[in-house]
Amino acid sequence: MITIASLIVFLAFYTLYYTSKRAVLSYDLGFEKWMQKNPKPTKIIGLMLLLSAYAMWLFTQSLGCGTLMFFIQLMTVGSLIIILTPLKKINSKLLLALLIFVAVTELYYN
Q1: 88: alpha, beta or left, given left = phi > 0 and alpha = psi -120 to 50?
Q2: Which of 24, 52, 64, 79 makes a 20 to 30 Å CA pair with 70?
């Protein structure tokens, strides 16, 4: 559940990052062009994803711990996206491999 919430936080921040007018954007995938051309629906989708991720954190943890972990994760993921996206270090294959590794590790230790 925490892995899914982490993935949703990443997707939410990534969608909100692509609505920025000052960010250096690259269009490797088709949905990235759509996000840049349609900022209003993309912002709504990003905010809804953030709210659902926060709700997942609250469901898995308590109010205080879930809120703290959500904001720590949001700051970490946001910083990595802002730093690594202009350098083109974020690609879908790396993210999929990382997600599978984290999910297997979470399931193994639970």
Answers
A1: left
A2: 24
